[in-house]
Amino acid sequence: MIVRPGDARYAELTHRGYNTRFVASPDEIWLVHSASQVEKAVHQAIAKNQRITVRSGGHCFENLVDDPQFRLLVDMSEMKSVTFDPALNAFAVEAGAQLGEVYKALYEGWGVTVPGGVCPEVGVGGHVSGGGYGPLSRRFGLVVDHLYAIEIVVADSRGRACTIVATREANDPHRDLWWAHTGGGGGGFGIVTRFWFRTPGATGGPSSLLPKPPSRMRETFVTWPWAQLTEADFTRLVMNHGAWHAANSTPGSPYQVMHSSFQLHSSLAQTIQLEIRMDATLPNTAKLHDDYISAVCAGVGVRPTIDIKEGTWLDIALEPTASYGAYSRQKSMGGHLRKPLTATQVGAVYRSLTDPNHNGVGLVYLAAYGCQINTLSSSARAIAQRDSVIKLWYANNWSEPADDAIEVEWLRTLRKNVHGATGGFPVPNDQQDGGYINYPDVDMRDPAQNTSGVPWYSLIWKGNYPRLQQVKNTYDPKNVFRHGLSLDPS
Ligand SMILES: Cc1cc2nc3c(=O)[nH]c(=O)nc-3n(C[C@H](O)[C@H](O)[C@H](O)COP(=O)(O)OP(=O)(O)OC[C@H]3O[C@@H](n4cnc5c(N)ncnc54)[C@H](O)[C@@H]3O)c2cc1C
Questions:
Q1: 147 & 173 share domain
Q2: What is the pLDDT of residues 370-407, one digit of tens each?
């Protein structure tokens, strides 16, 4: 089905993006149901010289989809089936499915899951292509560590669209195309219509081919009020948190069963929160949980409130993501930390979060990383970061278009102050380990913003960049699929 301006459905379909700072304005939206329909869309885009883009879950933070340059938008949202495919002995997930739909179908059907992101509304199409981590990743690795194959529509050098199935099998001639979709990012190689998942080395029936999540999960919110926090308290909390993660994130740690995110909201939001999600079924669940909270709180005068709840794995996994309401305009940037933020960096965070002139809701999000994630080599998947202990995400949210420039600048100032010693970005070194394509920031590509001396693609993919470049040259030589953070053919 093709929806054009004037159609009653056009407004809804062009406003599907998470970040309302960007809205699509294509001439045509193709709501597709099969790879052959996607092929037709790609064929037409090439024949008519229309810029083409693709949306799955719509949770992109940047304007990689919602931008006036794109005239044909392929919307995958009706391709969302989750089935077991005996032919490939793997679970087939269509690219338009949302993570919550995948978790529900895999768990209710077979008692298994993939260790994907925390937000059930995120789409598989972008999330998996970019590498994908979540609350079970310290135990089971990244979502792409379980990716077996993709079905993708690409465009060849003669402008013909074709569909390829690329697997991780060593003798597959398209293996590098599979590999590019284990962290190389969406929208820069072709349009993925289907992903297949099977854990490497897994054997037996479908119920033993992917990880089994815990039957029950504990979810805890530890909350501190900004009104009572001094800079010394704040610094101590963040340093305690960092030191704990540096000490408890090696593969095989007893703490691989626990995920947490330290959500340092700006003082306008009134509180900062530590969210914990962990296996509730272990004999030592309570001890691990309490010891972690004690370690983060050590030496801090302010007593937090602690709210604990337990539920089935699905209850917790399907909880809708907290919304910022009208504060839906956004700017963000993310990366990886091998070692915790230093006291100087925490001081920079504090100054930004308590800036009295700031009217947006800022967030420094420190997510638990490491453990099983760090058992693979840097080159095993396209996502190269395999010895970090914290995933970092900076965000700012606001409501008024008139505030765009000032609010974007707030985020930039935070980033530049925290990473001032390395040109304003978490350049790979002893402490930091570069960016994350699923937390995209087009500033990385702007020489006025990125003064680190490290090109944007090395910031994200490090040593995996040349191989990704080769995939781009082979499968998209005419650069049909491109956006602000995709590779150009060389
Ligand atoms: C609220 C929220 C929570 C998040 N939580 C997590 C988290 O816990 N863990 C994590 O790792 N990430 C997380 N993310 C980041 C998320 O993984 C990325 O934003 C991801 O790219 C979104 O995928 P999508 O399909 O929803 O987005 P879209 O906006 O549809 O697409 C994102 C990019 O992928 C491309 N793309 C989409 N579909 C396809 C396809 N079928 N084929 C090829 N390219 C495609 C698009 O063109 C675009 O470049 C979160 C994001 C948000 C907004």
A1: yes
A2: 999 999 999 999 999 999 999 999 999 999 999 999 99
